[in-house]
Amino acid sequence: MDLAQQAQIIDRIHDTLNDFVGQRLKVRANMGRSKIVESEGVLTQVHPRLFIMEVDRKRGRTARQSYQYVDVLTGTVELSQNGEPLFEPFIVESEIEGIEADAELGVEAEDAADAADDELASEEDAIAEEPVLLA
Predict the structure, then answer these.
(1) CB 77: neighbour CB atoms within 10 A?
(2) What pLDDT score does 99 carry?
């Protein structure tokens, strides 16, 4: 997926969420290190790069929490309403595996290029060390 496609998807996420302002949503955010935070709240504001929710906390309190559209794109943040997800995954598992495979191939290609450079350098060193006969 290229940058132009990602930008279009982020615009669609923004436009879709704009229609949900003032409505109750459930948020599931992957915070890393196996920590997933789930909360419910009202989508209060939609901005060009992020959206803000007023989420429920303990003892009837609320807190404002902001999220980025790119986190929805990558699946780090999932939004749902009445148990139905607002967005399907934008990046399918096969694309993720393909990206990882491409990255591995890139590393293997770099390793092969480094090995060729090392071999060439050792040949140059050997030539430099040969004695030169003067007549």
Answers:
(1) 20
(2) 47
